[in-house]
Design goal:
4 helices; five-stranded antiparallel sheet; 2 domains; 145 residues; alpha+beta
């Protein structure tokens, strides 16, 4: 019994100074590039102050979505028979600087296309007139949600 106790004590000595020194050195060598990558990633991230245009589009989209669905849906064919209608109610006034244009049209989810039918689904898009619709915010609004 005494021999087994000595053998357990001999094997459970812990880490040596060299092992600890090597692990700390290895950790430091690997941690520096990881922290540098993290710093670059955080610094390169666009902030809210760097993209005021996006926030302005988002606020316009929120204004449109705050309206009752019946009012949004009424704008789907405000421009006549054209399936895409620029909403004069929701868009900024013509000629204003940084004019935000709101386009609303009926959408058929089954066909994934514009529709003349009463689908109960409206596609809403908001973009800057000067930039065109390539950087637009868009969403679907349903009568039932």
């Amino acid at each position: 019994m005494c021999i087994e106790r000595r053998r357990l004590q001999a094997t459970a000595r812990g880490f040596s100074y060299i092992e600890i020194l090597l692990s700390v050195t290895l950790l430091a060598v690997l941690l520096v590039p990881a922290l540098e990558t993290l710093r670059v990633a955080i610094a390169g991230r666009p902030t809210a102050a760097a993209m005021p245009g996006s926030l302005s589009l988002q606020s316009k989209m929120e204004q449109v979505l705050a309206a009752p669905f019946s009012r949004i849906y009424a704008e789907t064919y405000a421009g006549g028979n054209s399936p895409t209608a620029v909403s004069t109610v929701f868009s900024d006034a013509a000629g204003s600087p940084q004019r935000r244009v709101v386009v609303v049209y009926r959408y058929n989810a089954g066909m994934k296309a514009l529709s003349n039918a009463d689908t109960g689904l409206a596609y809403v898009s908001v973009y800057y007139e000067a930039e065109g619709s390539s950087r637009a915010l868009a969403t679907l609004v349903g009568r039932w949600w």
